[in-house]
Every structure is written in C-alpha cells, then in structure tokens.
Amino acid sequence: MDLSFNEDDVAFQQEVREFLATSLPQDVKERADRGLHPTKEGQVRWQKILNEKGWMAPNWPVEYGGTDWTITQKYIVAHEMGSVAAPQPMAFGVSMVGPVIYTFGNQEQKDKYLPRILNSEDWWCQGYSEPGSGSDLASLQTKAVRDGDHYVVNGQKIWTSYAQHADMIFCLVRTDSSVKAQEGISFLLIDMKTPGITVKPIYGLDKENSLNEVFFEDVRVPIENRIGEENKGWTYAKFLLGNERTGIARVARSKRQIARVREIAGAEKCEEGYLLEDPDFVRKLARLEVDLMALEYTELRYLSMLSNGKKLSAEPSLLKIKGTEIQQRLTSLLVESLGMYGAPYEPERAYEGRNETPVGPDYANGPMAEHLYLRAATIYGGSNEIQRNIVSKMVLGL
Ligand SMILES: Cc1cc2nc3c(=O)[nH]c(=O)nc-3n(C[C@H](O)[C@H](O)[C@H](O)COP(=O)(O)OP(=O)(O)OC[C@H]3O[C@@H](n4cnc5c(N)ncnc54)[C@H](O)[C@@H]3O)c2cc1C
C-alpha cells in the first residue's frame, strides 16, 4: 500500500484547502460542525457551489458529470472536507440513486435525472424500509399493480430520512407475490407530488424531525419510471446498499470530532485543572484516537485495493461496524467533556429566535443532539448485527 502523496497530490490538497476556505458558507459549516441536521436551503446552496466547481459527484464517471480523480485525490477531498466540517452532498441522490440510474437506467432516465441530481433540482429520499421489513428487507409489502402504462402503488414506507424535503423517492415495490420474495421486487422512481402520497413526521430521540412515514394510496406511477426490468429490483437495491455502506465510516468527520473534544476539554475545568489534563479523560481520548487511526488505515488499505483493480466483498461491512461504533463513542465523550452543560438538552428549534441565552457556553449547543441522533448509526444503513452476519458468512465462511 503506497500512502505517500506525490507533488501533484500536494498541489491538489492546497487547491482543495483554498476552495474550502473561500467557498464554504460560514452558516453551513457551523451547523455541520455542531452536528445538527442540515437545513434544505443551506444544503442545496452548498451543493450548488460544489457543482459549479465540478466537485458534486467525484465518484461518477466523467461522461455523466463526475471527476477523473485518482483514489488518492478522492481521499484528499473527503479528508479536507471533514476536517473543516464541510457537509458532504446529500447521499440519497448523488451516492445512492445516481449510480443506480447511470448503471441500470435507460438513456431517457439518465438524461432526465442525472443533471437534476448534480444541480440539486431534485432532493431524493430512500423508500426501502417498511414496518416489519427492515433487516428482512426482501419481505416488503408495498404493492405496485400494472394498469395500462402505469403502476398503481399502495403501501407504506417508514424511517424515510428527510422525506419532508424530497422532490423524488426511489422505492422498492412488490410487483409479483407468487415467487420467491427477492424475485418479485421492482425499483421505481416516484415524484413526491403525485396525488396519493402522504408524508408524516416521526420525531427522533433528538426531538427533531429527520425521519418520516410515507404512505401511498392509489399512487399512479408511469411505467417509464421503473429502473431496469420488472421484478429485477433486488439486484439494483443490493448494488445501492453496497455504495451506501462504503461512505458510512465517516473517518474525516470523526477526526474533526476528536479536535472538538480537545477544544472543549481544553476549556472545561475539572478538580485538577482543565479536563484535558485529567489522566482518566485523556486515556479515553487516546483510546479513541488509536481506534480511529486503525480505522483510517484500514479504509486506506481498501482504497488501495480498489485502485489496484480488486473488488471488495465484506470490507464495507467492517468499515460500517467500526466507523459507527467510533462515532457513538466520540459523541458520548463530547457530551462527557461538557460536564453539567451536556445535560440540559433542548432541541435546536428551541434556540431559534428566542430571547433567553442558551444554557452553558456556545459549544454546548449541538453535542447532545448529535449524541442522541447517532444512537441510530448502528441501526441505519443495515444494522451492525446484520453487518456481522455478512462478515461471518463472507470472511469466516460460517
Ligand atoms: C435514523 C434512521 C434513518 C433511517 N433512514 C432510512 C431511510 O432514509 N430509508 C429507509 O428505507 N430506511 C431508513 N432507515 C431504516 C433502517 O434501514 C432500518 O431501521 C434498519 O435496516 C433495521 O430495520 P428495522 O428497524 O426494521 O429493525 P429490525 O430489522 O426489526 O431489527 C431489530 C433488531 O434485531 C436485529 N436483527 C434483525 N435481524 C437479525 C438477524 N438476522 N441476525 C441478527 N440480528 C438481527 C437488528 O440488528 C436489530 O437490532 C433508517 C433508520 C434510522 C434509525
């Protein structure tokens, strides 16, 4: 594995740093650094800046608007963005459905949807999970029945992140109930404004509305909105999940979190002086830094494998397990570093436009919200137990 940067890489790193220093809006950066959910307006504004620079979809093929960056350059961008808390483009469009469209979609679908993802005209959400069909996704029941040149969709999706903002949803639907579960699923692209769709909020542990239920009642979807062949949706769905898990380790974000813990612990007092001088606290922080470094080198090893033309199998599952465990430990430590100011949690809405000063120093606004939200990190993107099953099957042959 060659991890050294050549001269071109160092120059590129400098270009990325300058771009971020001059182009990342302060309000967007501040929100992301606090670990709060993005606003639609702020996220779209930032994505349009990235797109103007040609950096919206680094992983797409150049012909569809991607970059020809080397693996090292992709690593540099992800790392630099993470270290200044620059949000990544919303994954549902650019990392999930985009690659499905350019890999399995027809020419009309590519021409119609890919530019709209790049310029953030469409905000996408993911309609996979249903009540009773999460880990056992193939058991999903939302039905699509052919009626002339349309499907008529009935059913319910759940845990649909940011559906309240979405213009489009990519949906797994059952088009044949008479065959093995995986063989009767199709992949539809549905306009969220179609009559018969209702979005209902679910408030999470952080008391914020990032999750939703989406109901479909006689929703008419043109047949041309189906990706690939009818009843072959499971193939496209699995392809998408592989992409979802690769980006979920969030190493650069965790490195920024380590820096935040240091900043806060350097300002917070404890009995013996500053928290950053407390041996117990420093030991916990060091343990996390070591684990994060091991994760980073593991990710780099996988990137190196990819750049040498090798294929990954269970590796994304390993990154997902370790990455999300570290994220959870880190936000726990962030809250711990705040001492008593970590406890009086108020959802972020409570801070907007109010006269009273929030409790504690400014840096106390955010960590508890993220700590609570990230309890879900070991569940979403396929729970960590399911990832361990994948590892035990593919690596250990159990
Ligand atoms: C914050 C958040 C955001 C999400 N966003 C989206 C989204 O945008 N779109 C979307 O479609 N879905 C989304 N999800 C849903 C997510 O994909 C599911 O929650 C996840 O796949 C688990 O499914 P489930 O909730 O039905 O739990 P279940 O499948 O019922 O699992 C319950 C528990 O049993 C364990 N378990 C289940 N089966 C096995 C097994 N075979 N072996 C060992 N343990 C097992 C699980 O690990 C878990 O601990 C989101 C979830 C969360 C929490």
TrEMBL record:
<protein>
    <submittedName>
        <fullName>Acyl-CoA dehydrogenase family protein</fullName>
    </submittedName>
</protein>
<keyword id="KW-0560">Oxidoreductase</keyword>
<dbReference type="InterPro" id="IPR006091">
    <property type="entry name" value="Acyl-CoA_Oxase/DH_mid-dom"/>
</dbReference>
<feature type="domain" description="Acyl-CoA dehydrogenase/oxidase C-terminal">
    <location>
        <begin position="231"/>
        <end position="395"/>
    </location>
</feature>
<dbReference type="InterPro" id="IPR037069">
    <property type="entry name" value="AcylCoA_DH/ox_N_sf"/>
</dbReference>
<dbReference type="InterPro" id="IPR052161">
    <property type="entry name" value="Mycobact_Acyl-CoA_DH"/>
</dbReference>
<dbReference type="InterPro" id="IPR013786">
    <property type="entry name" value="AcylCoA_DH/ox_N"/>
</dbReference>
<keyword id="KW-0274">FAD</keyword>
<dbReference type="InterPro" id="IPR036250">
    <property type="entry name" value="AcylCo_DH-like_C"/>
</dbReference>
<dbReference type="InterPro" id="IPR046373">
    <property type="entry name" value="Acyl-CoA_Oxase/DH_mid-dom_sf"/>
</dbReference>
<feature type="domain" description="Acyl-CoA oxidase/dehydrogenase middle">
    <location>
        <begin position="125"/>
        <end position="219"/>
    </location>
</feature>
<dbReference type="Pfam" id="PF02771">
    <property type="entry name" value="Acyl-CoA_dh_N"/>
</dbReference>
<dbReference type="InterPro" id="IPR009075">
    <property type="entry name" value="AcylCo_DH/oxidase_C"/>
</dbReference>
<feature type="domain" description="Acyl-CoA dehydrogenase/oxidase N-terminal">
    <location>
        <begin position="7"/>
        <end position="120"/>
    </location>
</feature>
<dbReference type="InterPro" id="IPR009100">
    <property type="entry name" value="AcylCoA_DH/oxidase_NM_dom_sf"/>
</dbReference>
<dbReference type="Pfam" id="PF02770">
    <property type="entry name" value="Acyl-CoA_dh_M"/>
</dbReference>
<keyword id="KW-0285">Flavoprotein</keyword>
<comment type="similarity">
    <text>Belongs to the acyl-CoA dehydrogenase family.</text>
</comment>
<dbReference type="Pfam" id="PF00441">
    <property type="entry name" value="Acyl-CoA_dh_1"/>
</dbReference>
